[in-house]
Amino acid sequence: MTLSLNEYIAAFSHEKHLASLSQIGRGIEREALRVLPQGRLSERPHSEKLGSALTHPNITTDYSETLLEFITPVSYAPETAIAQLEDVQKFTLSQLNGEVLWPMSMPCFVEDDDKIPLAQYGKSNIGTMKTVYRQGLKNRYGSMMQVISGIHFNFSFPTSFWQSLQTVENNNAPLDEYISDKYFSLLRNYKRFCWLIPYLYGSSPAICGSFLQNKVTSLPFKKTEKGYMYLEHATSLRMSDLGYTNSEQSSLQICYNNLSGYLDGVSNAINLPSKKFAEIGLKVAGKYQQLNSNVLQIENELYAPIRPKCVAKSNEKPSEALRNRGVEYIEVRALDVNPFSATGISVEQIRFLDVFLTFCLFETSPELSCTEQVSCEKNMDAVVVQGRDPKLLISDNGTDKSIPEWGNEIFAKLTDIATLLDQANNSDSYRQALATEAEKVNNPELTPSAQILAKVVKDNQSLTQIALKSAAEYRAQLLANDYQEYNAQYFADTVAESLAKQSEIEMADTTDFDTFLTNYFSKFSGIE
After folding, report:
1. What is the CATH number for 78?
2. CA-CA distance, 476 to 90, in Å (whole number)?
3. Which of 1, 247, 266, 307 could form a disulfide bond with 331, CB atoms 3.0-4.6 angstroms apart?
4. Residue-level pLDDT at 524
């Protein structure tokens, strides 16, 4: 039995259900380039003082040796997640010998993308595989795209919430199946409304000219007097065709109507050959150029603004984990790094995401046809490049609407969700966070993308100097802070443990890499 949004809100306003909304789980993955104080990419390898990038629980690398990724565990208060991230960055900065963390999504000046070093994970077969995967990304899309930074926000409702929801709906399905079905309801509505995320939080309307080297684009860029490229109404160039896109994936029809359909779509994509990528070759002069020549080397190559997730066990690919145990949480991937926050994401953003994602779950969520999904994707594409254009219209299930028109309709519904979460947490923080975001819908000059362009275009400031000034301030701020959730001993221990664990993995290898890779793909096709 599916209820209306107001019926769900009324049901969870009762004390017996309300408490479950105070135990929402959140984890953050923040990417950040290591940059020299002069504004160029660091050429130093990942420091051993930070532990093993292969095995450290909080500090790793993404595509490049210079692209750090900070990971927080699941926590149950927005303040805790931010404090954990501050602690991890504080420790990292203390080991970087004067380098700073680039506070923006689009990269700093990069003279030659061939000089962007691939991430290295040691001598083990699994470590080698991770590097070869990145070699494949370089050959397929170029290195510049891969040093774009973002925020991944992991979100989950507690078991007690799902039990309450199942009671409210009078549903008797097995709990794991029920949870997966409801998460897919959330995913579909996220697809419908996620254009709001880059509008509110997009922070990459301008780029360094070096980013476009040897890259053809049809986007109508303008150029500032200092040489920075920008789009007048853009919100998030990171989410545009310049960023995380893959033309080979454009024909994939991955369905978000249920778990089995989604997994079938991912499986088909992993096994779909690509003529374009086959031209790269698998091995050239004895060196691997990619893991395979399929549209996806592994399932993590699937670019999507949101993913259903389940914590994978040892030797278990992500899709196997989902098939075996269902959806445990979702990963929101449409967030630019917030350049106005030392951690790249603020407490207020987390609170808004709590409200937004709860709304996506409670709001009526019919199945999405392929045509409707394409329409949702077109909305996102339009908002990232022209979201602040007052003439822009996007499609609400076939009806064209302006950003203020549709945005105000959504915020009217979000208000009741914010009130509900404030009741559950005995606060008014959610309503305050929502009020701040609501102002942006009617006044685009308040958005971070507009604020950045005002400095770079109107005031003719250097985007690089703006970023470096913030980076230096954030470095000083974080280093001056006391540890909050962790301590120095924790980081000393995890560094030592991660290095020891990497050594154990390397010593345990019993086959050569060719044999390992063959065996790997005969069993599964996914690594982080």
Report:
1. 3.30.590.20
2. 9
3. 307
4. 52
Assess contact for 349 and 428: CB atoms under 8 A: no
Q: What is the spatial distance between Cα 374 and Cα 164, in angstroms, rounded to a whole number?
A: 34
Q: From residue 420, give the alpha-carbon distance in Å to each of 6, 8, 11, 14, 483.
A: 11, 10, 10, 10, 32
Alpha helix positions (H), 363-428:
370-386, 403-425
DSSP 464-482: HHHHHHHHHHHHHHHHHSP
Q: How far apart are CA 26 and CA 39, in angstroms?
A: 32
How many domains does one find in the chain? 1
Q: Are 30 and 38 in contact (CB under 8 A)?
A: no
517 falls within a domain:
no
Q: Note down the domain range covering 424.
A: 5-503
Give the span between the Cα atoms of 310 and 127, in whole angstroms.
22
Tell which residue, 308, 309, 320, 296, has the closest CA to residue 133. 296
Task: Please give the Cα distance from 350 to 147 (Å, whole number).
Answer: 24
Q: Which of 303, 309, 285, 279 is nearest to 140 (CA)?
A: 279
Q: Which of 403, 380, 409 is nearest to 390 (CA)?
A: 403
* Alpha carbons 75 and 217: distance in angstroms, whole number: 41
User: What six digits make up the tokens of 224?
Assistant: 């500032």
Tell me, yes or no, whether 522 lies in a domain: no
What is the rounded CA–CA span in Å between residue 437 and residue 308?
26
CB 410 within 8 A of CB 395: no
291 touches 133 (CB < 8 A): yes
Distance between CA atoms of residues 91 and 57, nearest Å: 14
| First-to-final CA distance of the chain | 37
Kindly report the number of other CB atoms within 10 A of residue 28's CB atom. Answer: 23
pTM of the full structure: 0.96
Residues of the chain where predicted confidence (pLDDT) is lower than 50: 525-528
For residue 279, give both structure tokens: 């031209």
> What pLDDT was estimated at residue 359?
98
Give CA angle at 18 (14, 23), nearest 5°.
170
> Looking at the domain assignment, is residue 154 inside a domain?
yes
Which pLDDT score is estimated for 113? 84
* Model pLDDT, residue 127: 97
* Residue among 31, 18, 37, 103 nearest 60 (CA): 31
Q: Judge whether 508 lies within some domain.
A: no
d(CA 200, CA 345): 13
Return the closest-CA partner of residue 352 out of 273, 431, 289. Answer: 431
Q: C-alpha 456: how far from its chain's center? A: 26
Q: Which two tokens stand for residue 68?
A: 């750090």
In DSSP terms, 306 is beta-bridged to 332
Two tokens, residue 370: 């392929």
pLDDT for the residue 250: 65
Reduce the DSSP state of residue 499 to 3 states and report it.
helix
